[in-house]
What does this fold into?
Amino acid sequence: QSDETVEGTSGARAMATLAKDNADNDASYHAVAHPLLTEFSASLCAKAAESSTRTVGDLRESLIDSVIGMVLDFRVNELRLQSKDPIFNSISWSLSSTPREGCSTNSFSVSSRPKKWREALALALGEAARLREHGVTEGELSQALTTLINYFATQAVMKDSLESSTWMRRVMDAVNNGDQMMRADQKLDILRTLAA
It folds into this structure.
């Protein structure tokens, strides 16, 4: 993916800004320590205008954001598996847009044991910066697209076995978000076209 394409998505822009701001930021902080504290957690959130999925371009942007989040998960899991004593408990990124909140929210979260918080935060922000500067590899892109295609294929097969309450929730979410309501098999076809 070119920088222009990846940077064009709302989630990718937020991660790029987060990584850049961290490199330039030397702000002080206040650390709290207590023997009963068992976990450190930090969430960095950014809000943007509410987004919806109405066109194939909107769906493409949403899929790019999904791929970026999946690649971060792949890398974090690989780091965890490579270490006998990982310095973090979790590192995650999520992007959501809901009418209830009235905005889109990007959230980048890190948790670790209290004594390892500096290293965990540095590692997490380093991974965000690495994604921003180098993008995703062909292997990571292929793995993420295969995962997404398998997910939508499973959803397409299950469409007739979903409970009416699930369908109603999907319809209500689409109406509330201003999204185009699409069957899973339609999304699968679009994803396969975009992935080709």
Notes: Helices lie at 3-7, 10-24, 56-82, 117-134, 138-158, 164-177, 184-195. Residues 38 and 51 are 37 Å apart (CA to CA).
